[in-house]
Amino acid sequence: MSRQRFIVIGMTDDRSVWFPPEVRDAIAAGRIFSGGRRHHEIVASLLPEGAQWIDITVPLEAVFAQYAGHPEVVVFASGDPLFFGFANTLRRELPDAEIVVFPSFNSLQLLAHRMQLPYADMRTVSLTGRPWDAFDEALIRGERLIGVLTDRQKTPAMIARRMLDYGYDNYRMTIGECLGNREAEQVRALSLAEAVEAACAFPNCLILERTAVRPHPFGLPEQDFALLDGRVNMITKMPVRLLALSQLDLSRRTSFWDIGFCTGSVSIEARLQFPQLKVTSFEIREAGRALMDENARKFGAPGIDVHIGDFLAADLSALPAPDAVFIGGHGGRLADIVRRIDTVLLPGGRIVFNAVSDQSQALFRSSVAAVGRRLTGEMHVSIDAFNPITILTAE
Q1: According to CATH, what is the number of the domain 222-394?
Q2: Which fold has domain 5-104?
Q3: Which burial class, exposed, middle or buried, applies to 274 when counting CB atoms under 10 A from its CB (0-12, 13-18, 19+)?
Q4: What is the pTM of this model?
């Protein structure tokens, strides 16, 4: 049985579209065609008589059901189909299919060309139907150039607002609208404050150029955090915080849970030092919500997933399973918390707990042993006049 074949043709929004001879031959020989409605408007006059068109719309399952049974489908896609494009979807959903790609310039390349901007080191991010994770990581890392593919929800205005909310005002934004469409194309360079108010035609994309380097300290001073009722003892001190995070080996982790975050200092430090991490934070006190929000915005740590309420009663089923967990507060129920962590912790994952007394240290040891895990690290730390702390690591 022969493999199903897809010919994927990249194109811009140019209404007077031009294709090289091999692409024109593929179109002329085709019978089943597919693409977005915008693509159909542009290429309809080029299709052979009797051609059948399949719109690419969500849900994609319905689209692939229409593809079934056709030995060859010619697909029109925007820009380079292998650049966050439909060819990647085909490769994922139909791994046995033969795929031939004829690329065009993608929209971020077109925008860089319009700006006459060298873009070899540009970090590219897609927000098209995707979460903020990769964009937030690029911001935290302070990338010099960030190219962003948008959608109808994550607009240039929303992106600019998010950046300003978290203090990333050290970029300027250039927006490209309807690139390749000679009648509608527009390119605008704006400050972030101007971009917040900008209405943009769709489709659009943008490039962020860094104008200044934002400070990125290794260790955030505890006196700079908003505190719970002003209580300085309710925050993990910077040296202890950094040592605890080092024990979790976060450079090799993907999902970090902070249980009992209080002011959010551990979550925020982890987010800034290891921006590839998915950080999920739990706090039983409602006051923690506002504290985390204020401190995350102050230090530029977007993307922390906050959950308020009793951790032992929380629905964990939809959350990314952790491979690193810090227990910052336990309310006298440490053994129950360790048991619940044990049910979700990924193989090879680590748990770190800061014991402030012999009693809590003994309780963590027994709780870890009860679930069949072993203690692999123990550090004793004393900071100024505060009580000594023992940092315990289990895996």
Answers
A1: 3.40.50.150
A2: Cobalt-precorrin-4 Transmethylase; domain 1 (3.40.1010)
A3: buried
A4: 0.91
